[in-house]
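Lecture notes, unit on protein representations.

Consider one protein chain, 135 amino acids long.
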Amino acid sequence: MTTIFTRIIRKEIPGEIVYEDERVVAFLDIAPRAEGHTLVVPRVEVADYHALPPEDAAALAHALQTVARGITRAMGTPHYNLMLNNGTAAGQVVFHVHWHIIPRREGEPRGRPGAYPPGRMAQVAAAIRAALAEP
């Protein structure tokens, strides 16, 4: 069964994509733990990180660094969590490998703030794309 992430990658359903290359796509999480919370996902649909082909794992690592730099610039903070849930017991809900990059600020609560207000998600995505386009 095709995951929701594959459907976003194929652009069958909307997603605020901030980065993509031949092997990886990054898009904003629709239930963010902080503004700018981004998922970095391989195009290949594999449930377990250890089953990811090595070339896709390498591309994913490169994209994580690239996207993290863009997020820190756009969100104005050098702090972030980098997180992977692998398997049900680890909290994985969508069975398509994905890393979370969650920007953090000093003193900011770590709860789940919920959905973006109307129009804000597009603004955040545009800011991250612009930061990624900077040299």
